[in-house]
Each structure stands twice: as structure tokens, then as C-alpha cells.
Amino acid sequence: MNRQMMKGNEAIAEAAVQAGCRFFFGYPITPQNEIPEYMSRRLVEVGGQFVQAESEVAAINMVYGAAGTGARSMTSSSSPGISLKQEGISYIAGAELPCVIVNIVRGGPGLGSIQPAQSDYYQATRGGGHGDYRMPVYAPASVQEAVELTQRAFDVADKYRTPVMILGDGIIGQMMEPVTMPEYTAPAFDRSWAATGWKEGCGRERAVINSLYIQPDVLEKHVNKLARKYAAISENETMVEELYMDDAEYAVVAYGTTARIALTAVRRAREDGVKVGLIRPVTVWPFPEKAIEDAAGRVKGMLAVEMSLGQMIDDVRLAARDRCPVRFYGRTGGIVPGVREIHAAIHAMKEEL
Amino acid sequence: MAAPAIYGRPKFLTDAPFHYCPGCTHGIVHRLIAEVLGEKFEQDEVIGVAPVGCAVFAYNYFNCDMFEAAHGRAPAVATGIKRAQPDKIVFTYQGDGDLASIGMAETVHAAARGENITIIFINNGIYGMTGGQMAPTTLIGEKTSTSPFGRTAAANGNPIHVSEMLATLNGPSLIARVSVHDVKNVLNAKKLIAKAFQNQADGKGFSLIEVLSTCPTNWGKSPLEALQFVSERMIPEYPLGTLKEV
Questions:
Q1: B65–A195 C-beta distance less than 8 A
Q2: Which of A174, A308, B22, B84 is the 20 to 30 Å CA partner of A216?
């Protein structure tokens, strides 16, 4: 496909279709509406199914049904709607089903605002729903990256049989940027676990798509199996981008849209002679702990920049292990931090540390 | 030479022993469904969805691919399955708390969409698995662990007539209420369950069979008293019959 201007939400939807997603279940909420709207017409063209569900709760449970048959399935929403999906996400994690969930984050808590925010970090990276589980979470910083990570998300979901989240924000969803849709070929995955109709002697066990293990010792075994899977995901799937870090004396840590704004601030500070670099987690779970820990041993200080009161900073501090001080700059409530503000925060860090 | 078997375990039931209480009618309904499925379909043509509630372990009993859904979400799960596997017969098995309380939205909208699935709805007017709390279908006057003085409309709201409500929609092809408190009604229940599954096979769309059922344990009755309660108290509130047929 040629390079073309696409809105983030529509690009994510098309990337999913290119990745073989044929089942989408959604519910309207701003600022992600273009995803279900796009899917409602596009999936008809490719022989898929779109259902506008009666609620986000129903939508994620429709995903549970379709994903349980082994079909590539997706839902999308924004913060308050993602809260409603947590029940289903927990069940999907427990039943080990592959699917992709897109969260185009808006300000909160509560109904909050419809403006961009990163205040769902805790919810996205700490499970969100109940129980001992984890979920890979990709945080794209451009529309092009959103496309690539959406396709990767489907592969990772199938490889590990896990729900995977795309954690965007209102800017990623609403912004138009040039996009090249990658050539995509789905790898082959074992789907013998899927419920597609069974009879005695058909060569596999009867499928029971389930997260109930009523015997504590059996559930503990199951959860430990999940834990091994999460360890493998941490080992194999962590993604991070480091810019200007080779000689850096200071590091800014930011993800998603905020990382792009922070990068401009970093470049300006470099022009002022401040040796500052940028560490951008691309996966926020698994968090790039090693990159942060290594850098923390080399720099005088780190600055976490977020569109929230400071949530990712907890992970930065844990990974930095007190090897360097960690400072914070952020705006919340749907306010996007500007280059000038971040630039000033970098200088303030340099003055202090 | 052994005598030919005239009665046995349907192929749609596993050999796992039911965990249901003595006198509970879940076992009868499970068997009716299994008989109907076995008479009409191969095992690999059917996918079932178990609820949360006493029938949560239904996936251990129905001998086909099965899903266990979150509380009340079975119609949404079944929608996802049916959309992805349109050639399969997809059914849910749900109780009154699951279907008529927490899952009411999923039930109504699956019906309104005319989703081509079959729902078997067990109405025994109580939350059995959790120990006998008030259900949306609990009769006025009945004492439960959360309506200890007896249900009143003023304090606890009114019983919900699910089948009558769904029959007002355009989506469903068959809505019927049956009972399994005596042989005649058991045979009639089987007939309607068979019709519901046949409708799905014929592509006619959504069908729901409400089965008046017993819960001797949480009703505090003997099995026989429980059957009498169905005929004397439940049927007057929830009249039997076909409420909608297209």
C-alpha cells in the first residue's frame, strides 16, 4: 500500500484488518469512535463481522467468544469504557485467549474529559481487572508506529495466547500522519486449543474455554503457568527506544505522544549544551527495566514526563533502584505538556542535580 | 446375547456425575437438551456456553466444545462464537440471576438482534449457588436469605417476566415457557427445546426456552414439595405456553 495520510484510529483499524482481524466488537465513546466506524464498513468488504455491542462489557465478552474459536478479534474503547472491559480482560487472560484491545486514553477519573491523557497507565500495566495476571501493553508514539504495533500485537497475542493492549491517547487516535501500511504475513500458530467443534476421535481433547479452577492447588498451578508465560514475554518482547543516550548525563523518560514532545525538548536542551537523552518505553508492560537500570548507573538524574500526575514514574524509580534521583514533570486532566515546559523541567533538573 | 439398549446416556452428556442437589431439576433439563442435540446433530456441530450459578460446571457435563462465560455474559459470548462459527449450533444455559439480573442487557440485545442462538433459561426464583439469595424472579412473599421477611414489591421490587418482555421484541423466532414438574410437562419441554434448536438450524434466529425449575435446598422444601410449589405457586405467576413464534 502506498504512503497516505491517515487518522490514527483509522490506521489502527486498517492495520488490524491487514493482520487478519475479521471480528470487531465495539461501543461508541470519544475519542476512539473512528475505529468502530471504520470497522463497520471495512469488515463487510473482507467478509468479517462487526457488532455494535450494547455495552463495553458485552463487547469484550463477544471478543471472548470469537477469540475462543481461534479467530483474530479486537475491541477498542477509551478510558471509562476500558474500565468496563476489565471484567472480560481478566477472564480472557485467565482463559488464555488471544485478542487485541485498543485504549485511546482520555482524561479521568470518572467521566473526566475527552482530551488526551496517559492517566490509565496504572490500569493498563497493573492488570486492571482482578486476579494474578499481566498483559503486554504497547504505547505507540506515531500513527506509523501504531500501525506496526497493532500488527505485532496480534502476533504476540497468538504466540502467547494473551490479551494485548494498544495504549494510545487522544492525540494518536485523532492525529493524521503519513502512513505506509506494512506488507503483513501472519505466522502460523497452533490453534488446536480453540473451540471449533469437537467429536470423539477427532484428534484433540474437548475444548473448554474457561477461567474457573475451583480447586486451589489446581488454580495455583494454572496461575504459576501464566507467570512463566509472563516471564517469557518480559524476556522476549520488551521494547524501548533510546535517543541521545550515549553520552547523556541526564535522561528524560516518556512514552507515547509525550515522548515526541519530550524529544523536541531534549534536542533544544542539547542545543543549550545540556547532555540529555531520551528513553522511550515502547512496551510499558513489560517495562524496559534493564534500559532504565543501566542508564540510572550512568546519569546524574532522570525526569519522567507524563500526561498524568505521575504513574510510570513508579516503574522508573523501581528500575532505577536509587542509582540516580528521579524527578517528574506532567500535566493532567487532558492538558498536553508543551515543549517549553519540558525544556524548563530539564534545565531545572540540571540546576538541582 | 445382551438385550438391546432402549435407554442410555446421550452422547451429548459426559459420564461426569452431576453435582446438583437431590430434587433439583437441572439434571432433567440437562438430559432433555442432550437428548435433543443427539437426535439432531453431531457433537462437532454444537458449541455450548455455561453460566455462572449452579450450572457453572455445565461444561463438565455437555459433551461438546464448551465455554464458561462471566456472570450474565453468556449471550454476548455466544454472539462472538456464532459470528465466528456461523455453521455451528450455539446455545447458552443460564439461570435467573445470571440471565435476568446481571445479564439482562446481554439477553435483551441478543434477542433484539435476532442473534441465531438458543438460550435455555432456568427460572427457579432464587440464587442457588451462592446460598439462596433473592432473584429477580423470586415470587412476592417468598423468604430468601436477602429478603428474610418475605419479598415485597415496596422493599424488593417486583418479579420480572422475562419471556413476556422478550416476546415484545421483533428479533426472536421462538419464546416459550415450560416446566419440568411432571412427566407431561417434561415431554412438552423437550418438544419446545427441540423446536428452539431446529429454529437455529433453519436460520430463523434467536430462541429462548424458559424452564420453571426447582431448588429444594434453598427453598427449604423436600423434592416433592418443591415440585408442588412449581405447579401451585410459580405457574400462576409465570404461565406456561408459547409467547412468541415466528
A1: yes
A2: B22
Contact yes or no for B135/B101 (Cβ under 8 A): yes
The B-side interface with A (CB below 8 A) comprises 11, 42-47, 49, 56, 59, 63-70, 73, 76-85, 88, 105-106, 108-109, 113
Residues A52, A145 within the same domain: yes
pLDDT 10s digits, A111-164: 999 999 999 999 999 979 999 999 999 999 999 999 999 999 999 999 999 999
Residues in chain A with CB shorter than 8 Å from the CB of B67 are 64-65, 68, 195, 208-210
Please report the DSSP string for B171-231 in residue order. S-SEEEEEE-SSHHHHHHHHHHHHHHHHHHHTT---EEEEEE---HHHHT--HHHHHHHII
Are the Cβ atoms of A62 and B76 closer than 8 angstroms?
yes
Residue A230 and residue A265 share a domain: no
ipTM value for the complex: 0.97
Question: Which CATH code for domain B26-245?
Answer: 3.40.50.970
**In this predicted structure, what is the pLDDT of residue B3?**
82
Least CB-CB distance to B83: which of A64, A66, A195? A66
Do the Cβ atoms of B67 and A73 come within 8 Å? no
* Nearest CB neighbour to B81, from listed A59, A69, A211: A69
- Boundaries of domain holding A173: 4-187+226-236
User: What is the mean pLDDT, run by run of 10 residues, along chain A of 353 residues?
Assistant: 92 98 98 98 98 98 98 98 98 98 97 96 94 98 98 98 97 97 95 96 96 98 98 98 98 98 98 98 98 98 98 98 98 96 98 96
Q: Across the A/B interface, how many CB contacts are shorter than 8 Å?
A: 129
Cα separation, B96 vs B128, in Å, equals: 10
